[in-house]
Write the C-alpha cells for this entry.
Amino acid sequence: MANYKKAIIKTLGYEGGYVNDPDDNGGETFKGISRKFHPAWGGWVLIDDLKKKPGFPKGITINPMLNGLVQVFYKVEFWNKVGGDGLNSQEIANLLVDSAVNEGIVPAIKRAQGIAGIPQTGKVSEDLITKINLLA
C-alpha cells in the first residue's frame, strides 16, 4: 500500500517555503499553498501572526503547528481526492499526487485514466484504482 507521508515529503520537496512574489499568479504562498486560491486554509492565521515577529520569515518552515496544517491540507485536498490510500505502488502514488498538486486533480486523474485505458471522467473510481494496481 502506498504511504501518504512518503508521497508528500517528495512533493513538498519541490514546493519551497514562504514566498510572496508579486509576479507570481498565486501571490502569497507557503509550501505551495496559495492564499489567493486557498484563502480559508487555517495556516494563514498563524502566518499572519508570525509576520508580526522580528526576522519573519526565518524559521517559518520548521514551525510544527504550521507543518501539521500543511500535512492535513495536502492529504485532504490532493491525496484523498486521487485515491492515494487505494494505490499499491508508491511510485505511482507519488507521481499522481504530485501531478494533482501541480496541474489540478481532474487533469491528473484524466491522464491516469488514459494510461489505464478507461474513460477519462476526471473522477477517481474503483475501476481506476484496480487498473493502476494491475499496471504497477
Observations:
- The longest strand covers residues 18-20.
- The first helix runs from residue 4 to 15.
- The beta strands are 18-20, 28-30, 33-34.
